Amino acid sequence: MKRIGVLTSGGDSPGMNAAIRAVVRKGIYHNLEVYGIYQGYQGLINGNIEKLEIGSVGDIIQRGGTFLRSARCPEFVTKEGQQKGYEQLKKFGIDGLVVIGGDGSYRGANAISKLGIPCIGVPGTIDNDIVGTDFTIGFDTAVNTAIDVIDKIRDTASSHERTFVIEVMGRNAGDIALWAGLSGGAETILIPEEPQQMDEVIEKLNRGKDRGKKHSIIVVAEGVTNGVKFAEELERRTQLEIRVSVLGHMQRGGSPTATDRVLASRLGAYAVELLLEGKSGRAVGIMNNELVSHALDEILDAPHTIDKKIYQLSQELSI
Ligand code: F6P
């Protein structure tokens, strides 16, 4: 292996830059040439590719977003799109690829591997919904962003004796809601993996009110329901004064936490090691603080699960 490529794809996440930096520097450390592919799979199809040097990734470890930029690329879901990407890699003489992204990005990486160019996936998404790793790059930062907001909202909720519904990201996964809800001391956490009826939510609010509780925070994952609609129904069915906050894309930005920077550095470098060992069609991850890798074929169709013990704890601490 002489020349490798790196791209970021799908929704960006804080720490992607640190992962790119690790891929580039680890590659150069091992005498590889490293090429950056801009704008995800779209840029790959278009041949938007250039050589990166040690200095190309200077001063980025602390930055949110991804300097390679990212895109959601429907064309790359098709066989024709994948073939075009493969041909561009051949044209640039790239004989190994690191793809940093989520589930959709992994599917593209698997396709390229099967066409004959070794690919390794690195889990980069705030949702933490990738199988085969305890944590994804960007999740810790997103949770910290969310609790910063929850703490602030708690101040005003308490002054005005209000109930707040806070909608956080997580298209199909409740991890951000669960971790932000637990660490932000939310009274109720609604996640897609553990459905709850509106009646249960109301019952809990009433129990709190009877104990003299003056304000409440409800954290809801976007994958469960729309926070505004949920709050309207809750207000209609209770006499409570409710306000809503939808955190949205602010959760995707910001300087990555130390945890995300270290995770990204370890995973990016490990992906290069696997390419050097001749591995292909695998995704790296971290489990019990050990670097691991799994076949993309194995993890792509496996269902994501939340940590049940953490969910149970959140329930016990918010009775
Ligand atoms: O996958 C990460 C994520 O931020 C999800 O939490 C969210 O549902 C989605 O991306 C939003 O995607 P877009 O930025 O394309 O609207």
What does this structure look like?
With 319 residues, the chain is α/β, with parallel strands linked by helices. It folds into two domains: 3-138 and 256-299, Rossmann fold (3-Layer(aba) Sandwich); 139-252, Rossmann fold (3-Layer(aba) Sandwich), CATH 3.40.50. The chain has helices at 16-29, 40-46, 79-91, 103-115, 139-160, 175-183, 198-210, 227-237, 258-276, 296-299, 308-316; strands at 3-8, 33-37, 49-52, 97-101, 119-123, 163-168, 188-190, 216-221, 242-246, 282-287, 290-295. Strands 3-2-1-4-5-10-11 form a seven-stranded mixed beta sheet, sandwiched between helices. A four-stranded parallel beta sheet has the order 7-8-6-9, with helices on both faces. The longest helix has 22 residues, at 139-160. The protein is elongated, with a radius of gyration of 21 Å. The structure holds 6-O-phosphono-beta-D-fructofuranose. 6-O-phosphono-beta-D-fructofuranose (F6P) is lined by residues 11, 72, 102, 125-127, 169-171, 222, 252.
